Structure formats: structure tokens, C-alpha cells
Amino acid sequence: MVAQAGFIYRVLAEGGDDLRMLPLSLRKCNLARLLARRPEGVFINPFERGELGPDLFRAACKLGLEGLVSKRRDRPYQAGRSKYWVKVKNPKHPAMERAL
Hints:
Blueprint: E1 6-8, E2 13-14, E3 17-18, H1 24-34, E4 42-44, H2 53-62, E5 67-71, E6 85-89
Parallel strand pairs: 1-4
Antiparallel strand pairs: 2-3, 5-6
């Protein structure tokens, strides 16, 4: 039997409190605290600094991933696309062939 991994990348509410107005950096800290004793196979997507971006993108492409999303760590959550996040797509990924 092969266990599947799950990745958790955001928390928007906790105990009835709306966390969407907190900056990304604080929301990531809250998520890490909430999942400190998480079950086996559950991973928190790490927050990497911008200097690693080009190397991370090359690695993502080599792994055959669709791309990367970059977000400003000082910005609150905003649903949908905004000028504060950028998705960089792997030009060789099959998703690039999908019609819009």
C-alpha cells in the first residue's frame, strides 16, 4: 500500500477568528503552530525567500511541475488573482496546451 502525502498551504480562520487580514508571514506561523503535531504524510508548504526563486523554478521544471506561485509575505489574503502574487508556469508542462 502506498501512502499519499497531503500538502497544507494556508489557514484563513482559527477558532472562529478570521485570519485573512493578517500578512502571509503570520498566517504561515499560525499554520505551523496548528500543525506542530500533524499526522504522518501531512506537510506544510514552506515559505521560501525570493532569492531562491530562479533555482526553485528550475527545480520545479525538472520535476515536471506546472510552475510556482510567488506571493508577498507582507500582504493579507485576497481571493483570486492580484498584483501581489505571480504564477510562473513551466513552458513544457501539458497545462500550457490547455485552451483558456
